[in-house]
Hints:
One of its GO terms (biological process) is glycine decarboxylation via glycine cleavage system. By secondary structure, this protein is of the alpha/beta class. Helix content is 36%, strand content 11%. It is globular, with a radius of gyration of 26 Å. The model is unreliable at 1-6 (pLDDT under 50).
Amino acid sequence: MADQDFPLIFELSQESRTGFSLPDLDVPEMDAEDMIGSSFVRNKAADLPEVSELQIMRHYTALSKRNHGVDSGFYPLGSCTMKYNPKMNEDVARLTGFSHIHPYQASETVQGALHLLYDLQQSLVSITGMDTVTLQPAAGAHGEWTGLMMIRAYHEANGDYGRTKVIVPDSAHGTNPASATVAGFEAVTVKSDERGLVDLEDLRRVVDEQTAALMLTNPNTLGLFEEDIEEMAAVVHEAGGKLYYDGANLNAILGYARPGDMGFDVVHLNLHKTFTGPHGGGGPGSGPVGVSAELEPYLPKPILTKVNNQYQFDYDRPKSIGRVKPYYGNFGINVRAYTYIRTMGPEGLKKVSEYAVINANYMMRRLQEQYELPFDRHCKHEFILSGKRQKKMGVRTLDIAKRLLDFGYHPPTIYFPINVEEALMIEPTETESKETLDAFVEAMIQISNEAKDNPEIVQEAPHSTIVSRMDETQAARKPVLSYKKGETE
Ligand SMILES: *Cc1c(COP(=O)(O)O)cnc(C)c1O
């Protein structure tokens, strides 16, 4: 699949070649030092690549073709919900009334945008069953931290300063213990039992008067619905703790169950997963947080209110934890989520979780002969396999993931969750057809057969990509992200 027309040459610069033409200067020339001060004036021309317009066009187009995105192929990356992002959302987000406004504009001049945010908040209130929602947090983990800061403020307002611990199951998303730590709590682990669900005995053991909250990822990272939520809620609430729902993966229960009805005090959502915000490359995202009435006074400020049919921001919030983001959240992602919710409607949203769950169960059952299924029970939107059997034949889960590239797929999440050996975490999403799911299953079956008959082909994969195995540590620790003349090749 290597692009023949684009060899691996990165340095295309030729002295004096240009790809731009600027109009002649038609204003009086000014002295740069007078304008910006001498310390900011370059004394040497910047080392920029000197290339023609056609070269630069081909360069970026070729790079874009090497990228695997959800618009180019199946992307079953567990936990990330790489579903299709309808292009209509993009059209709406680009309407000039939304894209050309400024956060410093007076609220009277942006009533339409505020109306949209207000309605989105109300929709998320109905979807989650919480009393109020803030749209400020910019990502899931940011929402977690915001929620925990509100829980802390709540306890402190009650004079309850001894609640220093946040309980996090070992099947939680990795951001949960991290957010608890960043919010100044001690993260205490509670174990899963042989069902893959929170071990209630262990929970009773760790909950005490120091418990600030339990953070529950549901469905958990094994893709399983926590069946004992009511008991868990009772144990934590009786001890005076609050219940936090990690709802990043709400696409598993949308329209069927609501965290508010389960007794949760705080929930965050990932609009850039469940509600079709694109989320490649690390953002921007949106991680709204819903709270029960008891926690409402602590919401980040300002909050958006509707008074006499006018939308405005209320800054008079003495108990607020303060602002958690400049301006009012990632507005463009919120527009996309709003568009998605309105185009799907309540019935459509219900279908989303139906299909997400049916697709995952279908694939899980088709693959369980070849791959070990550590928790043999119905899954929600994603499922976990283990590559243990293949490992005995000398083929690691990493090799399986690399081999999938040869079939044109983005691999699933691997080696996570950490409580499953050689884990493969597969999330098909609801937007894929049965043909796509079947083709992926066939590829996985073929790889499993290769592991038996021809392990080298898997161990040495990928064979079809422009570079094969990379030094992933170096790529993460020392990425080369900018052009430096003569240093890239
Ligand atoms: C993705 C995810 C998060 C973190 O969301 P970010 O937007 O990446 O910070 C938290 N919890 C769960 C269950 C997730 O899947």
